[in-house]
Design brief:
Shape: globular
CATH class of the largest domain: Alpha Beta
Structural class: alpha/beta
Helix content: 40-55%
Number of helices: 33
Strand content: 15-25%
Number of strands: 23
Largest sheet: 7 strands, mixed
Number of domains: 6
Length: 963
C-alpha cells in the first residue's frame, strides 16, 4: 500500500474521497475541482521557475536522488522524489478496524509513504560537527491558508526527516498572488500527521468503503455527483446540510439513519410563555418533515416588514482576495422593476463601484436593502470601513445599517422542503431556473478567472446575467417569506399560485393522551363540552341524585371548628423601653389577641389557642412602641411552633405550600390559606438571613470549603444555585448566571483549600485548590469504554488507578493526615514521568495525558494538607438536598422565592451536618446554630448529673409548654 500526498490530502477532507481515489473509482467530473487542480499545477510550475531564476545556476538541482540528500552540495532542489516505509507508532500492536458493513478484523500491511517535494532549501553546515539544515517548500496558489495546507507541508517534512534520519523542524509555504512566504514549525504537527497516516492506512486496508457522509468539501470534489446520487438513494441524513456531524451521530445511536425516519420524530409542542419572545431553535426533524411532505412548514411567528422601497442586492466577489467586483441591484417601485449592475475590473476599481452603488441608493426614496446570507452583510461593513460612509445622506445610512438578511428570517422558523437553506435550492423548488445549468458561486469564480486571463466579453456577460438572476430569485423568495410573515395575507389564499404551507404549531399531536376536540360541524364542540366530567357532575347528576346534592352542600360549607381557648395570659407592662431603656411612657390601649399555635406533647401535636391581653405603650423619649409578646410570630395571629412546623415541612420534607395548608386546616382546624403559609415562610427567611451570613463567615475563616453549582428553571429561564459546604456548615446562594462573581464575593478572604470540580471559574480563586479526583476517574473510565481497543488509554488509566488505589488504602488506615499521605508524592512524580515517556500517543491517549498534566498541581493537594478529602462528595451531598427541594418548587417560584428557600435550606442542612434537629432549632427561636448546639450539650450534661425529682437520667421532660 502506498500513501501519496494526493491520498493524504483527500483523507483530510473526506475519508470517502480518499478511498475512492485509492481504488481507482472513475471521476464523475467537477468543473471547479478540475479548475483547482489546473490552477495549482500552473502556480507550482511558475513558482519553481521563480525560485530557480533567483538562485545561482550551479547551486540548483532538479529531481535529485533521495539517497544523495545527505551528501548534496546544492542549495536549492525542486521536484524531489522521496519514499519511505511507514511503521505504526504502535509497532507491537495490531491495527484493528471494524466497519459497520463488515465484521472482519483487518490488519494493514507495510505502508509505503511517498511524496514529490515541490522544493528543498539547503543551508550548509555552519561548522564541524553541525549537519546541514533542510527546509521543505510547498506551493499553494490561494492567498489564504488553512489547517489542511499546513498538515500537507508537515507530511512533506515527516517524509524528508525519515529520509535524512533527523527531525526537520521548520518548513515554508509560498502562496498567493504576491508569492508570500510563510514559515511553519512543522515539528509541532508531526504527531497529528502520524495519527492521520495510521488512520489512512487502516482505511485503505479495508476492502469496504467508509460510511458515505456528505460535507462542505463536496462542492470541490470530483466525486460529488456520484456521492450525492447514492446519498439520495439511501435517503441519508447527511443530505441535511444544517445537521452537524455530532448531531448526526446522536441520531444514529437512536436508530435514525434516514431523512424519512427523522421526519417521523417531529412533534408539535406548545411553547412556554416565557420563551415566546426568544429566538426559535432549529428543528432538524421539522426540516425532514417538510422534505417528506414537500410542503413549507412554519413554526413560531416569523417577523419581516419592508417599510419603504425594496432593493434586492446580490454581490459577487473573490473571498480568497477579499475583492468584490460585481454588485447587482434590483429595485421594485410600484409595478415596475429596474435592474442595475456595477462592475469592477480590478481591486483599484472597488472604490468606484461602491460610490456608484451609493449614488443609485441616493436616488431611491426610503430604500430597504434585502439580501440573502452574511456575504452581503460583510460586504456592506467592509466597504464602509475602507471607503467611508456617505455624507449628508441619512436615509442611505439607515438603509445600510438596517438591511434585511432574508436567511436570518427563514432560519429556524420557515422550513422549505429542500435539503439546505441555500438560495439556489429554495428558488429552484419555487420554480425559478437559471439560464446557465452550472450556475453556482464556485462557477462564478471560474468565470471571473477566465475573464481576467482573456478579457473576453462572454465570461463577463455570464457573470452579470448570473448576478441579475440571483436578484430575481431573491425577490421571489422574499415575496413568499413576506407573505408567510403576514398571516392576514397568508400563502394559502385562493388568488395567485402559492405553494402549500403548514403551520407546525397547529399540527395534531398523535402522542397526546387527551387531544383537544376541534370540529368544523357547528354545535359539535358545544356538545363535546357538555360531556365533561365536572360539567355533568355539577350540572346534571346533582339534580337527579340526592346524595350528590347533599355531598356538594357539605363541601361548600367551610370546616369551622370551635376555637376553645386553652389558656389566658395577662402580660405585665414592661418596666423600661426596649430601645432606649428609659422608664415611663404613654399607655395607648389594652389589646386582646388569640394566638393560634401548635403544642408539642410526648404523644404528638395538637392545636392550641391562647388568649393574650397586653398593653401597648409608646415611649415619650424615642417614640418606640412596646413589642407584642414573643410568642406571636412577626405580629401575626400565629405562634412560633406553627411557623416552625410550616418551615420544617416545606424545607426538610419538601412538601408544597398548598399541601401544608390543606393538612393544617384539615388536622388542626385552622382556616388559613396559601398566602399565610407563604408569608410565614418569607418572614422565616428574613429572620434567619443573619444566620446564613454567620454560617458563611464561619466557613470563610476555616481551612476547607467544598463548592459546587447546579441549575434551576424559573419561568422559562435558567438560573443557578451555588453551594458552599464544610463538614459542619452548608450555605446556598442564588445567581442569575454561572459566572464566578458571586463565588468570589462570597468567599472573599478565604485562605484555605477549595475543593471543587473542573469548572474553570473555580480556578479564579486565589487559594490552594483540590479538584475532585472522583470526577476525573469517571471521565477516564468513559475514555476506556469509548476506546476499547486503545491500549495506550488503558495503560494510562490503569496506572492512575494503581496510584489512587494505594492512596485510598492509606486514607482508610490513617484518615486524612498529611504526615501519612506525603509519602505518595514520590509515586505521583513517578506516574507523571511514566505517562510523559509515551511517544506518538493516539488522540484519546493524548487527551487523557493532557488533562492529567494540566491539573497536576490541583489533583493531589490533599496529600499536603490535613483534613482535605480527595473528592467533592460533601458539596454533592448538599446539592442532592437542594435537588429534592427543586422537584417541588421548580418552575413555580420566583428569584426572590428561591432565595428565601435557600436561606432556610442553609439553616436546615447546617443543623443536619452539626447533628441537630432542624425543627427543634426553629422552635427555640435561636439564630446562632453553634450557640444552640452548645446549649443543648450543656443541657444534656446537666440532665445526666442532676436527675431532678428522682427521675432517671434518660427520662423525657414534659415538652407541652411553649418555647
Amino acid at each position: 500500500m502506498t500513501i501519496t500526498p494526493s491520498l493524504f490530502e483527500a483523507f483530510l477532507k473526506c475519508p470517502t474521497k480518499c478511498w475512492l481515489r485509492f481504488t481507482g473509482e472513475p471521476r464523475a467530473g467537477n468543473t471547479y475541482a478540475e479548475w483547482l487542480q489546473s490552477e495549482q499545477e500552473s502556480y507550482r510550475a511558475d513558482a519553481a521557475k521563480r525560485l530557480i531564476a533567483n538562485a545561482p545556476a550551479d547551486a540548483c538541482a532538479v529531481a535529485p536522488i533521495a539517497e544523495n540528500l545527505k551528501t548534496a552540495k546544492w542549495l536549492l532542489a525542486v521536484d524531489v522524489p522521496v519514499r519511505i516505509e511507514f511503521g505504526s507508532s504502535r509497532s507491537n500492536e495490531a491495527q484493528l478496524c471494524m466497519t459497520e458493513h463488515s465484521q472482519s478484523l483487518v490488519t494493514p500491511a507495510t505502508t509505503i509513504v511517498e511524496s514529490r517535494l515541490h522544493a528543498i532549501e539547503r543551508i550548509p553546515s555552519e561548522g564541524r560537527g553541525r549537519a546541514a539544515q533542510y527546509t521543505p517548500i510547498r506551493y499553494i496558489f490561494t492567498n489564504k491558508l488553512g489547517k489542511h495546507d499546513k498538515l500537507l507541508l508537515a507530511f512533506d517534512a515527516l517524509v524528508l526527516s525519515q529520509v535524512l534520519g533527523r527531525e526537520v523542524s521548520l518548513s515554508k509555504i509560498i502562496h498567493g498572488d504576491n508569492h508570500a512566504t510563510l514559515k511553519v514549525k512543522t515539528s509541532t504537527l508531526t504527531s497529528q500527521v502520524r495519527r492521520r497516516l495510521n488512520k489512512t492506512a487502516i482505511l485503505l486496508s479495508n476492502p469496504n468503503p467508509p460510511d458515505l457522509v456528505l460535507n462542505r468539501h463536496c462542492v470541490e470534489c470530483e466525486f460529488q455527483a456520484r456521492c450525492r446520487q447514492r446519498a439520495i438513494e439511501k435517503d441519508d441524513l447527511s443530505l441535511l446540510t444544517s445537521l452537524s456531524e455530532k448531531e448526526r451521530k446522536e441520531f444514529n445511536t437512536k436508530g435514525i439513519f434516514t431523512v424519512t425516519q427523522l421526519s417521523y420524530t417531529s412533534r408539535p409542542r406548545r411553547r412556554p410563555k416565557g420563551l415566546k419572545q426568544r429566538r426559535e431553535r432549529y428543528h432538524h426533524s421539522l426540516k425532514a418533515l417538510a422534505v417528506r411532505e414537500n410542503k413549507i412548514h412554519i413554526i413560531g411567528t416569523a417577523k419581516m416588514r419592508i417599510e419603504g422601497t425594496p432593493v434586492y442586492i446580490d454581490v459577487e466577489g473573490l473571498p480568497d482576495r477579499d475583492f468584490y467586483y460585481l454588485v447587482g441591484v434590483r429595485i421594485k417601485t410600484g409595478g415596475s422593476v429596474v435592474q442595475h449592475s456595477f462592475w469592477a475590473d480590478s481591486p483599484s476599481d472597488e472604490g468606484r463601484l461602491w460610490q456608484e452603488f451609493l449614488s443609485k441608493l441616493a436616488e431611491i426614496k426610503n430604500p430597504v436593502l434585502v439580501h440573502y446570507g452574511s456575504f452581503e452583510t460583510i460586504f456592506l461593513k467592509r466597504m464602509q470601513q475602507k471607503y467611508g460612509n456617505p455624507s449628508n445622506a441619512r436615509n442611505i445610512m439607515t438603509s445600510l445599517e438596517s438591511s434585511i438578511n432574508l436567511l436570518s428570517v427563514i432560519f429556524a422558523q420557515i422550513y422549505f422542503p429542500t435539503y439546505s437553506n441555500g438560495l439556489k435550492d429554495i428558488a429552484r423548488w419555487l420554480g425559478f431556473n437559471w439560464s446557465a445549468e452550472d450556475a453556482s458561486g464556485v462557477q462564478s469564480i471560474i468565470w471571473r478567472s477566465e475573464w481576467e486571463q482573456t478579457s473576453a466579453p462572454l465570461p463577463k456577460e455570464k457573470l452579470i446575467t448570473y448576478n441579475s438572476e440571483d436578484c430575481v430569485a431573491l425577490e421571489i423568495v422574499a415575496r413568499i417569506v413576506l407573505e408567510a410573515c403576514q398571516p392576514n395575507e397568508g400563502l394559502n389564499s385562493e388568488h395567485g399560485n402559492h405553494p402549500e404551507v403548514v403551520v407546525a404549531d397547529n399540527l395534531d399531536s398523535k402522542v397526546t393522551m387527551w387531544p383537544k376536540f376541534n370540529s368544523a360541524i357547528e354545535g359539535f364542540e358545544a356538545i363535546n363540552k357538555a360531556a365533561r366530567w365536572d360539567y355533568q357532575r355539577d350540572r346534571i347528576y346533582i339534580r337527579t341524585d340526592g346524595e350528590l346534592r347533599r355531598a356538594k352542600k357539605k363541601m361548600k360549607r367551610r370546616v369551622k371548628r370551635p376555637t376553645r381557648v386553652g389558656k389566658v395570659v395577662i402580660c405585665d407592662r414592661p418596666p423600661t423601653c426596649v430601645r432606649c431603656q428609659n422608664k415611663g411612657g404613654l399607655m395607648l390601649r389594652t389589646i386582646t389577641k388569640r394566638l393560634h399555635d401548635l403544642r408539642f406533647t410526648r404523644s404528638g401535636i395538637t392545636g392550641w389557642v391562647v388568649k393574650y391581653q397586653f398593653q401597648v405603650f409608646r415611649c415619650k423619649y424615642c417614640s418606640e412602641f412596646t413589642p407584642w409578646p414573643k410568642e406571636f410570630w412577626e405580629r401575626t395571629m400565629y405562634g412560633r411552633n406553627l411557623a416552625a412546623f410550616i418551615i420544617f415541612e416545606t424545607i426538610e420534607l419538601c412538601v408544597s405550600q398548598r399541601s401544608v395548608t390543606q393538612s393544617l386546616n384539615r388536622l388542626f382546624g385552622f382556616q388559613m390559606d396559601e398566602n399565610v403559609v407563604h408569608r410565614l415562610k418569607a418572614s422565616g427567611a428574613e429572620y434567619y438571613e443573619e444566620t446564613r451570613k454567620g454560617i458563611l463567615a464561619t466557613m470563610v475563616k476555616g481551612n476547607l470549603i467544598h463548592a459546587d453549582e447546579t441549575r434551576i428553571k424559573l419561568h422559562g429561564k435558567i438560573a443557578y444555585v451555588w453551594v458552599f459546604a464544610t463538614f459542619r456548615e452548608v450555605a446556598y446562594f442564588y445567581s442569575e448566571t454561572r459566572e464566578g462573581s458571586l463565588m468570589q464575593s462570597a468567599l472573599d478572604g478565604f485562605k484555605g483549600v477549595l475543593v471543587s470540580d473542573f469548572y474553570a471559574v473555580y480556578d479564579s480563586m486565589p487559594c490552594p485548590q483540590q479538584k475532585c479526583v472522583l470526577h476525573l476517574m469517571r471521565d477516564l473510565n468513559d475514555a476506556v469504554l469509548d476506546n476499547p481497543y486503545d491500549e495506550e488509554v488503558k495503560g494510562i488509566v490503569t496506572a492512575f488507578a494503581e496510584l489512587l488505589g494505594g492512596i485510598v488504602k492509606t486514607i482508610d488506615q490513617w484518615a486524612l493526615k498529611s504526615r501519612f499521605l506525603r509519602k505518595h508524592l514520590i509515586n505521583v512524580a513517578r506516574f507523571y514521568r511514566r505517562i510523559s515517556k509515551t511517544e506518538h500517543p493516539s488522540d484519546s491517549a493524548l487527551k487523557c495525558r493532557t488533562r492529567l498534566e494540566k491539573d497536576r498541581d490541583k489533583l493531589f493537594t490533599f496529600l499536603k494538607h490535613d483534613g482535605v478529602p480527595w473528592n467533592n462528595n460533601n458539596a454533592e451531598h448538599a446539592i442532592k438536598a437542594f435537588a429534592r427541594l427543586r422537584r417541588a418548587i421548580e418552575g413555580l417560584s420566583t428569584p426572590k422565592g428561591i432565595e428565601e428557600y435557600l436561606i432556610l435550606l442553609s439553616v436546615c442542612q447546617t443543623c443536619k451536618y452539626s447533628g441537630l434537629d432542624f425543627l427543634d432549632f426553629l422552635r427555640s427561636g435561636e439564630k446562632d446554630i453553634h450557640g444552640f448546639a452548645e446549649s443543648r450539650r450543656g443541657r444534656r450534661r446537666r440532665t445526666h448529673t442532676s436527675q431532678p425529682n428522682g427521675l432517671p437520667a434518660n427520662a423525657i421532660p414534659n415538652s407541652g409548654d411553649q418555647l
